[in-house]
Amino acid sequence: MIIRLNALDTLFFRDGKPFTMGEGSWASGSFPPAPSVFYGSLRTAYFARHPEDFNKANRPGDPTAALKIRGIYLQVGDQICLPLPADCAGLNEERGKALLLRLANAPKASSCPVPLVLESPAGEEVEAVEGGVLDCFSLIDYLNLKEEEFYYYKLSEFVLPEPKTGIGLNKITGTAQDHMLYRAAMWRLESPVRTGSQNQVVSFLVEFTGLNLPEKGILKLGGEGKAVYYETLGPEEGESLFFAAPELRGGRFKLYLATPAMFAGGWLPGWLDEESLTGSYRGLGLRLLTAVTGKYISVGGFDMREKKPKVMHRAVPAGSVYYFELTGGDPGEVVKVFHRANLSDYCPEQGFGLTLVGGVGND
C-alpha cells in the first residue's frame, strides 16, 4: 500500500536536542523527519480506529506487529525526490550542479580505516552540499552510471521554515503560565513565495505492508498533534517508486541509503568486522572499500504507552553511500539481496536503512 500525505498546516518534527519549557525558549526541529515518525503515525491511526486493541500495543498479539515500511519519499509537484548521494559534491563554479567523485587509493601514511577514498577530478573545485535532493530520474542515472554530473535542488526551495511562538498553559486553570514563553521550529511544505516561483504541492509518499487503513483519511504526524490528509495511490502512480535495479558489471557496487540507518557499529554495519572491514550478508562475502556518511543524526521519540521518551540512538543520515567489493557468492544475488531492502541493524521494519544498489565505474 502506498499513500500520499499532504500537510493541512505547518508541521513540527523534533530533533535530538533536549528542550525543557521554562528552562529554554527555542524548541529546535529537523527536516525531513525520521522514518519512526511515519511508523508511529500509522500505528496511531490504527489504534485510534481500534481503541479496544491499545492494551496489546508492543505486546504479544499486537495487531500492528506486521507493519513494515518499505519506502519514504518526498514528492514535489509530480517529481519524486531523494537525498543527494554523499559521493556527489557541488561545483563551486556552477551553483545547483553536483559532480560524482572518483575513487582513489587512500594515502599510506594516514589513519583512514578504508583502502580507498573519494576525490574530485583534477582541476575541479567542489564543496559539500547540505540539504540537496535529486529527482528520481537523475537518481536512476546516478545508480546506472549514465551520468556523472547532476542538477540538484535544495530542500529550502520546497520546505519553508515558519517559527511559531507559544506559551505553556496551566492544565488545571487553562491560563498562561509565567516564564513559559517558547518558539518552535515549524515547517510549511510548499515552495517559498519569496523565490518568485509558482507554489508547488509538497507531499510525503509512504509505502508499507502489514496494516489495513481506509483508502483516505486524516493522520497525526510529528509533534503538537499536527494533521495531514492521506490518500492511497493507484498502481500506475506507484510505479515510479520501484527504481529498476542496475546491471552490475564486475565485482564492485555501491549501496545508497535513501533513509537513515542505525548500525551496530555506529557508521559501520554490524555484519562487517571493524578491523578487516570484511563480512558476509545473506550468503554474500563482502569487503568495504570506502564510505561517505556525513554527520550522524539523533533518533528518539516518545512512547505513548509508557508515557516517557524513548532511548536516543545515533543514525547514519540518508544519502550516505557505501562502496563494496564482492569476495564470495553469486554476483547476480547482490541486487536481489540489497536493492530496495531495509539494511538497518535496528528497526528496519520502521523504514530505516532503505537501500538502493548502484554501479561503480572502472576508475
UniProtKB/TrEMBL annotation:
Q: Which Gene3D superfamilies match?
A: 2.60.40.4350, 3.30.70.2940
Q: Which domain of life is it from?
A: Bacteria
- Which Pfam family is one of those matched by this entry? Cas_Cmr3
What name is this protein filed under?
CRISPR-associated protein Cmr3
